[in-house]
Design goal:
By secondary structure, the chain is of the alpha/beta class. The chain is about 40% helix and about 20% strand. The chain folds into three domains: about 1-140, Endonuclease, Chain A; about 155-280, Endonuclease, Chain A (2-Layer Sandwich), CATH 3.30.870.10; about 290-360, no CATH class.
Length: about 375
């Protein structure tokens, strides 16, 4: 088993894995704007590898790009299937090489997730997990119901709630979480119960929950973008996946994660967590239901507050640095770059507006 850390490891481990495929690639795609990944899939198909891409039927703001991506793959020899629309979203991130290695990722194949965000991926070789992931893939390709047959592959809505509740419940000393947002009451209560037992519970998140119990948990925010869901338990076991501890992601979306019991990998992730914790800051409180009060605030005042909270310079500097560092023969994709920039601004503006409205409401 091997751990990949973003943004430090970048796109290369993904490309290397795809290029080493000899027989088959099964790949699930929710978002993609990295042309190198697309090229690696096409090259694999051209050398005789059976490449099957399962592409999300929809994602917020990116449908047109996905449909164009589908057509390009089909034209170049890749088998393409679209996910069903029976769930709110198909949000898992994984690919399987030669039915031997599962690459389970917390990030998408995008510039934003790989170059500008904290995230992880795992290369899993345990046969039972790989086989279960391949069975899940085939079920979703054929649009037939999937029922989990083991608990190491964590799949929403099949078994994620039960498996993750038990994973948290079995903690004896420590639970370290990278979590986009904890809002499910059952998980909040489980974490609070662990705190009362003396377990060291810490969360690196985007925003502090407005739930009173969750707000009491020790939570901090990174100064960089966060795009990972992970739980590190007692220095021995780890969960990594695409699902946050939210009701929607437990019960109405296809989310995929994995639980591993390897101390070496877990300790590597803990080292990154502790480094991030040292560089983090108190998590901003999520905007409360009183946000409607903000509609009484003059538009110019809101705009001024948003501008005060926005910090685009680090983003621009990182994008420029990436462009400058690209090799001379790298393919420049204007559409992909534009999509990356749009997503970057959308994320930054969303957080800035939330913070601005929160400040205005409190005044």
């Amino acid at each position: 088993m091997k751990l990949f850390i973003q943004p430090e490891d970048g796109i290369q481990p993904i490309l290397d894995a795809l290029r080493k495929a000899k027989k088959s690639i099964q790949i699930l795609i929710f978002r993609i704007d990295r042309s190198e990944v697309e090229q690696a899939l096409v090259e694999a198909a051209q050398r005789g590898v059976a490449v099957q891409a399962l592409i999300a039927y929809t994602n917020r703001g990116g449908d047109k790009n996905l449909r164009r991506f589908e057509m390009r793959l089909l034209e170049r020899g890749v088998t393409v299937t679209r996910t069903s629309d029976d769930l709110v979203r198909y949000h898992g991130k994984m690919f399987i090489v030669d039915h031997e290695i599962l690459y389970l990722m917390a990030f998408n194949f995008t510039q934003m997730d790989i170059v500008l965000s904290r995230s992880f991926a795992l290369a899993v070789t345990k046969p039972s997990i790989v086989a279960e992931a391949s069975r899940l893939f085939e079920c979703d390709v054929k649009r037939v119901p999937y029922e989990a047959k083991q608990d190491e592959l964590v799949v929403s809505p099949s078994n994620s709630r039960e498996v993750l509740m038990k994973f948290i419940g079995d903690a004896k000393k420590q639970l370290l979480l990278y979590e986009m947002k904890v809002s499910d009451r059952d998980f909040i209560e489980a974490l609070m119960h662990k705190v009362t037992e003396g377990v060291d519970v810490r969360i690196i998140t985007r925003t502090q929950s407005k739930n009173a119990q969750a707000a009491a948990l020790s939570a901090r925010a990174l100064p960089r973008r966060l795009h990972v869901r992970a739980i590190l338990r007692d220095g021995q076991s780890a969960f990594l996946g695409s699902q946050s501890l939210r009701k929607l992601e437990m019960e109405a979306r296809r989310e995929i994660g994995v639980i591993v019991h390897e101390a070496k990998v877990t300790k590597q992730m803990i080292e990154v967590f502790e480094k991030d914790w040292r560089h983090s800051e108190p998590a901003p409180t999520a905007v409360s239901d009183g946000v409607m009060e903000a509609f009484e605030v003059p538009a110019k005042r809101v705009a001024k507050e948003v501008a005060r909270h926005m910090s685009m310079r680090p983003l621009v500097e990182q994008l420029l640095e990436h462009v400058v560092d690209e090799k001379g023969d790298a393919k420049f994709e204007p559409d992909a770059l534009a999509q990356t920039v749009r997503q970057a601004f959308r994320d930054e503006i969303q957080e800035a507006v939330a913070h601005a409205l929160h400040d205005l409401i409190r005044r």
